[in-house]
Amino acid sequence: TAVAPASWNDKPSKRWSMVVPAFITNFSIGSAWGWSIYTGPITRENGVVASIASDWSLSEASTPMPLVFASAGVFAAALSKWNTKVGPRTSILLGACAAGGGLALGSFGIATHNLWALYLGYGFGNGLAVGFSYAPSIQALLLWLPDKKGLATGTCIGAYGCGALLFSPVSQRLMNHYYKAPEYLGKIQEGSYITKDGRLFTPDGTTELVMATSQDLAKLPSEYSLLEGLYVAGTGSTGAAAALATCGALYFCLLTLSAFTIRTPAPGYSIATKPTTGGEAVSGLDESQQPAVPVSVALRTPQFGLLVSTLFCCASGGMALMSVAKPMMGEIFANALPSLVTASFSSTYILLMSGGNVCGRLGWATLSDAIGRRNTYYIFTFGAIPLYLGMPYFINVVTTTNSTAALYCFIGSTVCAMSLVGGAYSTLPAYWADIFGTRVAGPIHAWALLGGTAAAFVGPAVLFTLRSRSEEKAIQQLLAQVDRAEFEKLFGAPIENSKQLIEAKTLTLTRLVEIKPVEVVDPTPFIYDTTLYSLAGFAAMGALLHCMVRPVPKSLFTKP
Length: 560
Known about the structure:
The chain has about 550 residues and is mostly helical.
C-alpha cells in the first residue's frame, strides 16, 4: 500500500527514510537541466564533424529543454487534483512510463532526423513525467517533515535541479561509446570540392561533403582523434540517438523503484510545527488539519500572482543559460584559451552549473528556515542583478588579456546565478506553505509552475533572438573586412554568394574568423553580451514585483 503502517508514526527514522525515494524521483525527472550536452551533437547529426544544410540549427536543437519545463508546468497544473486523489505511488509509476517512453521516442526522432518526434518524445514526454511525479513527491515529503519545510522542499527540488549531474556525464560516455567516425576524404585543397547552392560536393557533384576546420574539431571530444579536412556527409554517427535511448531505460527503472518505495503518513501522524502566516498552528496537531487558504481562493490572490511573476523573472535567466551552457562556453572562450577551454572543459562546465543549481536548491531552502522566505527571495532577486551585469566585463577581460582568472570569475558568476535560480524554485513551496498553509502547498505549487512554463520559453527565446542578431551583425562586419580571394579559396564561391553559404551552414562565424585580418578583433565572444544585459533587466523586474508581496488576510484561512 502507498500509505505507511500506523506503527511508523512513532519511529522518526521511518519519516527520514522517505527522503530517499523523493530524492531519486526528482533526480530522475531533472535530466532536462543537462540537455545542452546533446545540443552540439544533434546540430551535426548528419555532418557529424560539423553542421551541414540538413542539420538542425542550435535554436531547434535547444528547444527540447524549454519544452520539458513548459509542458511540465501545464501538466503539473492539469494533474494536480488527480495526483492528490490517487497518491504519489500511482503518479510516479505513470511518470516512469512517460519518462522511459518519452526518451525512447526522442531517440527515434534523432535517429530518423524527425524534429517533431524529438519534441514530442523528449520535450512533452519528459514534461508529462514531471507533471506526474514532481508535486506528489514534494507533497509527500512535506507531510512527513512539516517541521522542516525548507529542508523537505529543498531536498526534492534540489534533486530535480541536479539531474544533470547524472544525465550529462552518462550521456557523454554513452555518445563516445556509440560514436562512429564519418568517412574521411582528405585535406582541404583547391579543386578537391565544388560549391553548389551553398553546399559542398565532390568535383563530380554526386556526393555531399562536410568541411572540418581546426576550430570545428576543437569543439569535439579529443577522444575522436579526427583530422582536419573533408568528410562524406551522412556517414558516421554522433551516438546521440543510442545514448538517449539507453538513458530512457535507466530512468524508467529508477522511477519505478521510487514509485514502489514512497509512502504517505498514516492518519494521526503529527509533528509540532510553527504557525503559518495567517493562522495559529496547534502543537502536535495533524498537519492536514491546520488552517489554510483554499486552493481556489489562493490562486486568485495578489500574492499568488506576484510570486509566480517573481519566479518567472528569476527563472528566465537560468533557463537561458542552461539551454546553451556547453556551446556557449566554447563560442565565447575557446579561441582565447584553446588549450584550456576544450570540449571536455565545456562538458565539465555543465556539471558546475548543475552543481550551482543543486547547491542553491538545498542551501537556500535550508537557510530560508532560519532567515525567512521573504528575506531569501530578496537575495535571489537583488543578488542576480550584479551577477548578470558583470558577466560581459569578464568576457571582455578574457578576450583582451587571455586571463584565466577572469574566465573563472565568469564561471563563478554563472554558477552563482544558477544557485539563485535553483533556490527560487526550491524555496517557493515552503513560501506557499508559510503564506497559504502546508496542506495546500503542493497543489498551489503545481499551478505556480506555469510561471516556470513561461520562463522556459521566454528565457531561451530572448537568448537565441539576441544571439542570432549579434551573430548576423558580426558576420556582415567580417565580410566587409576579409580578403575576397581568401574567402573564395576557403568556401569555393565568391563573397557575393555569402547568403547562400550561410543558409547552407557552409559559411559560419567560426570559419569566417579563420580568414579575418590579424588586426580585426574576433567578435565571437561578444555575441551573448546583449542577452546578459537583458537577463539583468529580468532580475530587476523580479525584485520590484517581490517587494509588492504582502501577507494574506487571516479571514481567508479555513479549517478542513
